[in-house]
């Protein structure tokens, strides 16, 4: 029997009004790195996580999506160090870091486009993606 295929990276695709504006927020505020600009699409990356931002000015505004505003849960090996690194003065913090009964330490933010993102650390079984 062969070994199970392994996930080697994690990517999210987001429709946003202006990809470059949103990418700047991810880079300057959330401390991701610029990966590439494909004209209408801008990719940002941190470790093995890529966020592909597509300019879709006619898409349904995120504010009209209700509970579907969440798009991802990004895990770190040290969530408190990441929390200290981001520019919190420019972040709409929905939940500050705290330990949860399900064994995660996590915080939540809302992007300028309205997407909600969770960032966490597994306190019971830390298995971070390799960068």
UniProtKB/TrEMBL annotation:
Pfam families: Glyoxalase. Residues 8-122 form the VOC domain. SUPFAM superfamilies: Glyoxalase/Bleomycin resistance protein/Dihydroxybiphenyl dioxygenase. It comes from the Bacteria. This is VOC family protein. It comes from Aurantiacibacter gilvus.
């Amino acid at each position: 029997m062969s070994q199970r295929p392994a996930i080697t990276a994690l990517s999210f695709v987001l429709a946003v009004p202006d990809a470059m504006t949103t990418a700047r927020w991810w880079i300057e505020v959330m401390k991701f790195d610029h990966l590439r600009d494909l004209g209408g699409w801008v990719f940002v990356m941190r470790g093995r996580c890529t966020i592909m931002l597509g300019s879709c000015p006619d898409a349904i505004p995120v504010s009209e999506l209700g509970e579907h505003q969440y798009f991802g849960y990004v895990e770190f090996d040290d969530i408190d160090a990441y929390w200290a690194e981001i520019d919190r003065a420019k972040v709409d913090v929905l939940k500050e870091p705290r330990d949860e009964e399900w064994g995660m330490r996590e915080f939540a933010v809302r992007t300028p486009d309205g997407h909600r993102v969770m960032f966490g650390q597994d306190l019971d079984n830390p298995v971070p993606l390799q960068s």
